[in-house]
Batch of 4 targets.
Target 1
Amino acid sequence: MPAILAAAQRALHERHPWLITLGYRSSSIGPESLAYFDACLGVLTPTHATARVKFEAIAVLTGLAALFAQQARSETSGAATIFPLVPLESYPHLAAAVAQPAEEPIAGDLFERTVRGVLTGLLQM
């Protein structure tokens, strides 16, 4: 269920890229924002996390959604950076990682895996 809320938040940021420029301030919170927080808290009810940890998880979830939406826009605009086009002699760890042979893609959606992994880690604290 958290992944569904995260996907909805990501889709919202993809439809409205200007949202990230608003920032998150109390003056920008309306009924839809309140409904989102309430739905997230409802999904997190079964966890034994404190309210503070739940709000932190919601903030990270929202940030991930915005980040993935922004990345999707960059990829479609051709703005994605490709490391091999840059001299990497001064960056030995990056050069070693880029030199690794290509791996088989991991099954499943990267966004969903990231959301699940991050929320699992946060809510276990």
Note: The CA atoms of residues 69 and 117 lie 18 Å apart.
Target 2
Amino acid sequence: MSGDRKREHDENAPPAGDVTDEEADRIAAEAERWLAQEEQQQQQQQKEASETAPESEEELPPETLDEVDVKDLLRRALRPPPGAVAPSLLGGVQKKLRTRSHGKFYGDGWSTARSPRSTYLITSVLMLVLMVFIFLVLVPWGGGALP
């Protein structure tokens, strides 16, 4: 008889995966309460955020930026501040090349001098004087007129 009672109970009971109407109503009520609490928390957070935000920053509609505006903004942001001087990297680069190449490059010291302009100026003036001297010495012996 006990086996018959189990079968009768099993026949009246809903299948294992189904939920009774009472349980469904209870779950729906819990879900509604939970959603209401979540909405209240979100409203409170928004209210707190709006109270802590300064009043001068009113919500403005977002501006649309085209490609040219974005490029201009990037250029202004990446531009060095006024009065900023770029560091001189030449001496450091030459020194590193000289040490890594064991003196093969920039080992003479003449090309890495602080003021090679004076060296170039002196060399060019000496060459000009030499050319003028040679010209003056050779012209009288040429015997012919200059073209």
Note: The first helix runs from residue 2 to 12.
Target 3
Amino acid sequence: MEKEVFFLENLLFKSTAQEIEERYQEVLQLYAHDPEILNIAKSIKGMCDYIMKTYKEIPNPEKKLDESLYTTLYQVLKDLSITLYDLSIAEGEQIYYVLSSAYQKLNGANNLLERLV
């Protein structure tokens, strides 16, 4: 049973990582001319890559990482994925709201990961 749960969790994380990569590429294409949006998208992608690296280290008693982190890390990944999606669909004045929200989410994710990891 434990192996099945691990397999499903792994599949869930990998599919979310693929979704993030696709959304990241879409934002890069849409906003190739806008350095601010490119910068936030790269920051989000970097944070997601760091989360995936952290996920792969669970469980790790040396870093006090245990299975209870799976849900938290997954929720942060999903939230950042949605932010990339929002960047890809925002138009006009909406983009400023989405950018502001993206900066806040990145800051929150960074603060959370500093405490957890």
Note: The two ends are 27 Å apart (CA to CA).
Target 4
Amino acid sequence: MRNWIALMLVGVALLAACGPTVRADPGEVVYDVGSGFPLGSVQAVGAGHPIIVRLSQSVASYYALEARPLPGYGRWVQRLGTGSTAIYVSQRLNAQGQPEATIEMRWTFAVRADGFGAVRLETLASEAIDVGLVEGPAFARLDREFRRVASAR
């Protein structure tokens, strides 16, 4: 009887390992947002889709509560936050209060055909910066809130 149970457990483990793998497109990070929606509901994807809303709210709360600017730069300010796109900017000002350098982070959120949420981030800077210092903590927030399924970044 014990051998039969052990054999059944091995069989279940093998079946689980043979499941479909999720692949991310270049530049994309894929998350299981856990919306609870059936895959059939993905056809009506728009900016108000619950998966897009949850991803964009997570990023917005990161910038509101956790994001730290690079040394010499000012706090992160949201420049655009409509639908599936969000842009956050941090600037370093000169002595006259004029922008001297700018970092812009452009987020795009989508729902994939398989029902997972997709996030793309493009970071633009007017001077050389360590992009990992601004992107790493932002993705760490998403990783804490949702399960990362695949990444091609």
Note: Helices lie at 2-17, 50-65, 131-145.
